[in-house]
Amino acid sequence: MKHTEWLMDKYPKLRDEPSAKTFALIEQAKDRTKGRMLIILSICTLAAVLLAYFLAALSSQFISLDFPIVFGVTYGLVFVLLGGLQKRLERLVIQNKIIELMGDSEE
């Protein structure tokens, strides 16, 4: 679900507001969470490399392929799986920041 759709579902009163205000709120939330996004990206990338290395080392004992080939395949699979988790975490962080910003604007 896009941020605008989620925002309209969570705060129906924003349907009457100009779309520029909604867009500005989302952009403000994204700008304020850039540091957290970088941390999430770093952790997911490191986890992907370590998990792929572990799985490649484990599976190369049972498969008659070279380690770099097995590592490349497992890294690709792990990266795709962790990429979905990373996007979900980023969406949650942005949504929490939007909720925080909406709480600040109501006061």
Question: What would a concise description of this structure say?
Answer:
With 107 residues, this protein is mostly helical. The chain is built from four helices and no strands.
How many individual helices? 4
Ends distance: 28 Å
Radius of gyration: 20 Å
Q: Note the run of SSEs as H and E.
A: HHHH
The portion of residues forming beta strands comes to under 5%
Q: Looking at the structure, what is the overall shape? A: elongated
Mean pLDDT comes to: 85
- Main sheet summary: none
Helix content: over 70%
Q: How would you characterize this protein structure?
A:
This protein is mostly helical and 107 residues long. It has one domain. It has four helices and no strands. Helix 3 packs antiparallel against helix 4. The longest helix is centred in the C-terminal third of the chain and has 40 residues. The mean pLDDT is 85.
Keywords:
107 residues; elongated; 4 helices; mainly alpha
Secondary structure blueprint with pairings:
Blueprint: H1 3-10, H2 19-32, H3 34-60, H4 67-106
